[in-house]
Amino acid sequence: MMLELDSLTHRYGSELAVDDVSFGVEEGELVALLGPSGCGKTTIVQAIAGHIHPTSGQVALRGADVTDTPPESRHISVVFQQSTLYPHMTVSDNVAYGLTARNIDSERRTELVSEYLELVDLSDQRAAYPAELSGGQQRRVELARALAPQPDVLLLDEPLSALDRTLRERLRDEIARIQRETGVTTLFVTHDQDEAMALADRLVVMNEGTVSGSGEPRSLYESPPTAFVASFLGRSNTVSGPITDQQPLTVSLGEQQLVLTDTQTELPTGTTVTCHVRPTALSIRPPDSADTPLSLAGTVTRVTDLGKRYDVTISVDAANDLVVEQPASPPTVGDAVAVALPAQQLSIFGPDGCTRLDEALAPEAST
Ligand code: ADP
Ligand code: MG
Questions:
Q1: pTM given for the model
Q2: Residue 355 has what pLDDT?
Q3: Is 199 helix (H, G, I), strand (E, B) or coil?
Q4: Within a domain: residue 361?
Q5: Atom in ligand 1 nearest the alpha carbon of residue 158
Q6: Ligand 1 pocket check for 18: Cβ under 6 Å
Q7: Within 13 A of 311's CA, how many CA atoms are on the CB side?
Q8: Angle at alpha carbon of residue 349, lines to 345 and 355, rounded to 5°
Q9: Alpha-carbon gap, residue 349 to 238, rounded angstroms
Q10: Crossing angle between the packed helical segments 106-119 and 165-182, to the nearest 10 degrees
Q11: Residue 180 confidence (pLDDT)
């Protein structure tokens, strides 16, 4: 493992910002650390880079504990959201600056500057000053400067968050290409789930200082290990109901019974459980369709035309409003409908949001 965090915990005074976080990044891997603002991502970056000393826990690089190693001896580069380029230095001087500390002779330094400016496609801007560059070009200079010392680990802390959407998507693809070409072990920090899913080999999803789930983007999306991952990673509908029987395990959803034949739980009868289901997994049927084993009766309250799909909002008596994604021929507002729940595509959680009841239905759940 190139980078490994073991039970990393950090307090600012009495505030617990990072709580017992453990995960690793393999050599050459691109892992996204994803979570809402304030969940502790930057604190983790600072602890890995050595800018803060964690309250407890360890940071290891190539298997060696570096928790007490000063930042300059860690061979880690960081790119932050805000520019840290020197305004009075040219592009090539900015890139070279990262190399002076490394005791690299001037000939080799010039070579590396050229090589990395070429990598980020900015060879023609070597003599420009940062203020003469666009926002996207400035980001690419930062990347070149971070990569030129050939770090063991590249930390990117929301590097695209200050850019507009089109540029963000273009640079995201550039980062993917550059990471592939250099093979640098990368931890990409973001609050943007689309960005994380598009870029990363693997995601570590954080919530309130703790890891809420980790795994490949698709398996986390399709089989979320926690209610937080289910709601944060893509959209999900929730339907709640009590456990009404244990043998076989039965959950009451509206006037319907969901029977989980292969599932056992310690949770007692009467406990409210919550099913998460993706908008694409739901389907709209006529109100009295007899062929649907599990469905909820409701009324269409809103149809939003998003060009490539419709979002149909349905008010149901037995649950929160449901949103169904439909590619074509949407119903009309006011229609009485039935919403079919596909039992195989429900993720069912106990009241803590972390106990999954339907593991047997979803064997690939990863935590
Ligand atoms: P993120 O990068 O995910 O937005 P941070 O690691 O910046 O999260 O912050 C995690 C928590 O720690 C937040 O509640 C934040 O207010 C708090 N925090 C961050 N930096 C400091 C600091 N220097 N002093 C006190 N509290 C801080
Ligand atoms: Mg942050």
A1: 0.91
A2: 86
A3: helix
A4: no
A5: 2
A6: no
A7: 11
A8: 125
A9: 10
A10: 130
A11: 96
Q: Which residue do the tokens 């949103």 mark?
A: 323
CATH number at residue 293: 2.40.50.140
Q: Contact at 8 Å (CB) between 119 and 147?
A: yes
Does the C-beta of 287 come closer than 6 Å to ligand 1? no
Q: Is residue 356 part of a domain?
A: no
Ranges of residues in the chain whose predicted pLDDT is under 50: 360-367
- Residue owning the nearest CA to atom 12 of ligand 1: 17
Is residue 180 in a domain? Answer: yes
Ligand 1 and 135: CB distance under 6 A: no
Please, are residues 149 and 102 in contact by the beta-carbon 8 Å criterion?
Answer: yes
Please tell me the predicted confidence (pLDDT) of residue 291.
67
pLDDT at 266: 86
* Rounded Cα–Cα distance for residues 144 and 121 (Å): 10
> Torsion angle of alpha carbons 229, 231, 234, 235, nearest 10°?
160
Residue-wise DSSP of 68-109 = TS-GGGS-EEEE-SS----TTS-HHHHHHHHHHTTT--HHHH
Strand order in the sheet with 3-12: 15-25, 3-12, 56-61, 64-65
- Residues 252 and 216 grouped into a single domain: no
Q: Is residue 358 part of a domain?
A: no
In ligand 1, the atom with minimum distance to the C-alpha of 35 is 3
Q: List the residue whose alpha carbon is closest to atom 6 of ligand 1.
A: 40
Q: How far is it, in rounded angstroms, from Cα 365 to Cα 367? A: 7
Last residue in a domain, options 170, 194, 227: 227
Position 254: which residue type? G
